[in-house]
Design the sequence.
């Protein structure tokens, strides 16, 4: 599969959920089912404390749900577990496995995403051409990235002027998402805004409505940055 065809799989994504195996003490499959019904169209399994077998089992359990709903299914950090679980791809950080190694492990048919936190990291990802999309953030300070300073909307604008599909992430919720979208993000990723919500479906629907409304107000934003 060519890089362009892989990126075409990611471009329609608008609301990306990153979640542990038991978000808010609830089974991930239950939260994911509700969140997808509310408008989530990409899901990343990210749990730094779970063992390998539990992550693989979770991905396999989510696979039928994601197939039925057309939801992209990603695994954080571990390309080997993405392959073992049958995920659509892996998302790695700057200090995780090298993107070239991630690509070698997952092959040409799966997606590779990369976190970026500075303009030079965004530009390097574009120039190297190995990853299919990038995460840009944390836009706002967040406990899920403790100790990492917020990059603000400026980095979102920088990424929006480049050719690589990206998702804005970090402390984004219903109170600040519109500013991030106005800054040029065609899609947003959230953790706590959905996983900590009493009703994940309602929370997801509110966020998805913000993304869709922004695209309706200015379709050119989506065309430039998708």
Sequence:
């Amino acid at each position: 599969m060519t890089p362009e065809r892989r990126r075409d799989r990611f471009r329609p994504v608008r609301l990306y959920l990153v979640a542990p195996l038991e978000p808010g003490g609830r089974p991930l499959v239950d939260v994911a089912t509700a969140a997808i019904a509310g408008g989530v169209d990409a899901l990343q399994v990210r749990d730094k404390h779970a063992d390998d077998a539990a992550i693989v089992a979770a991905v396999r359990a989510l696979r039928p749900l994601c197939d039925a709903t057309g939801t992209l299914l990603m695994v954080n950090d571990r390309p080997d577990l993405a392959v073992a679980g049958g995920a659509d791809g892996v998302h790695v950080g700057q200090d995780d496995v090298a993107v070239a190694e991630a690509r070698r492990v997952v092959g040409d048919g799966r997606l590779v995403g990369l976190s970026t936190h500075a303009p030079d990291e965004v530009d390097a990802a574009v120039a190297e051409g190995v990853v299919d999309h990038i995460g840009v953030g944390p836009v706002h300070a967040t406990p899920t990235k403790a100790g990492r300073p917020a990059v603000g909307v400026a980095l979102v604008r920088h990424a929006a002027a480049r050719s690589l599909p990206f998702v804005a992430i970090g402390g984004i919720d219903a109170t600040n998402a519109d500013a991030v979208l106005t800054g040029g993000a065609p899609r947003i990723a959230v953790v706590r805004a959905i996983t900590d919500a009493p009703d994940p479906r309602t929370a997801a629907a509110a966020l998805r409505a913000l993304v869709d409304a922004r695209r309706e107000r200015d379709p050119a934003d989506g065309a430039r940055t998708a």
